[in-house]
Amino acid sequence: MKTRLILLLALLLSVATAPVAAARTEYDVDYTVQFLPTAGEAAVTIRITPGEGSARRLRLHMPEARYTNVRGDGAITRKGDTVTWVPDREKASRLRFRYRIDNERRGGGYDARMTEDWVIVRGDDLIPRAAVSATKGADSSTRLRFILPKGWGNVDTPYLRANNGRSFVIVNPDRNFDRPVGWIIAGAVGTRREVIEGTEISVAGPKGDVIRRNDMLAFFNSLVPEFKQAFGEVPRKLLIVSAGDPMWRGGLSGPRSLFLHADRPLISENGTSTLTHELTHVITRIRGAEDDDWIAEGLAEFYSIELLRRAGLLSDARADKAQDWMANHGRDIKSLSSNRSHGPRTARAVQLLRELDAEIRQATRGKRDLDDVVQALLPLREVSREDLREQTEKLLGRPSRVLATPLLD
């Protein structure tokens, strides 16, 4: 009896002292963006409302050349490009500022532009990145709202709409403080939407520009299933923004979204596809570690050919010609190490990845391929050559012969 009593007391004590997971508490964050075409700026307000949790301090990266007239509630200080904001802990506080929209890239062409009729800009820039100190376990419940000039009838983002149409629910599972990232388009804009295998696809561009909205949607009908097969998951929404000159004449990926110049072909003469390349960046979100940008760029270009072939948008013969073009274009590259891979270096990376795919297929008798390695790398986001070697070795049961190359020395 005494022994049983001691055991019971020990059990009760262990339950009482067991660690308890911290409760998740929320606070509200509301972003309001008003576009001001005459000034070439956006007037932005960040409102934080304490709930069971609260944001105690925000350190925002706001270079003075683009973010001006910073003011609001609570304590606000600027030191160089950093603005520190301490909101009120007991009631709603607002931070207001202006953001200059137009941004011309080196070499010409805009990657952010506002006219009298429309605007194309990235949410990452409208709302600056911030280091946030908050109460323990706190998470933000976040909305993004737009105030549009008269005659601007449309706005779209990579996020799903709230019930009132011009507000969007901002959710980023990777962060406790959510902010809108990815491409945003608003104004006199034409949009075509379609839901393909559970993913909402929006293709938007200024009215008057020749945008191949229906062509792109047809492209997606074939490609979305192949992206799912290759990488396992596709975002619930994808936004493709397109426009003509003077926008930058290329493709630029962002979270769940991308920009593609209206003159870019869906399939180039050499058999590659800027659209598919950028979509691979959007969906995998893989970036190269230091000196290994060739991994992200090589994968995007490899799959820009391979997924077109799988989807039946390129014949096997045409895909082989595209790979032959890559082999010739990258033939003089002796090292893949670089923090910025493009042109011949990326072409050589494509050939290395093609050889790796063939090695995996042969070693596994066709049961596995490069897709399996990529899926294992997805959770890492930042990928090094060592990560690539490690995951390939796990799959093969031995080190890869293809990756034991002087190109990676």
Describe the structure.
This protein is an alpha+beta fold and about 400 residues long. It is about 30% helix and about 30% strand. The protein contains nine helices and 22 strands. The strands form five sheets. It has a six-stranded mixed sheet with strand order 4-7-2-1-12-14, with no helix packed on it. Strands 8-9-10-15-13 form a five-stranded antiparallel sheet. A five-stranded mixed sheet has the order 16-17-18-20-19, with helices on one face. A hairpin with a 2-residue loop joins strand 19 and strand 20 (about 255-260). The longest helix is centred in the C-terminal third of the chain and has 21 residues, at about 345-365. The protein is globular and about 65 Å long. The relative contact order is 0.08. Mean pLDDT is about 90; it is low at about 1-20.
Secondary structure elements and pairings:
Layout: H1 2-17, E1 25-36, E2 41-49, E3 55-61, E4 67-72, E5 75-79, E6 82-86, E7 93-100, E8 103-104, E9 110-114, E10 118-122, H2 123-126, E11 130-134, E12 138-147, E13 154-156, E14 167-170, E15 183-187, E16 189-196, E17 199-206, H3 213-231, E18 237-243, E19 251-254, E20 257-261, H4 274-284, E21 287-288, H5 293-310, H6 316-329, H7 343-363, H8 370-377, E22 382-383, H9 385-396
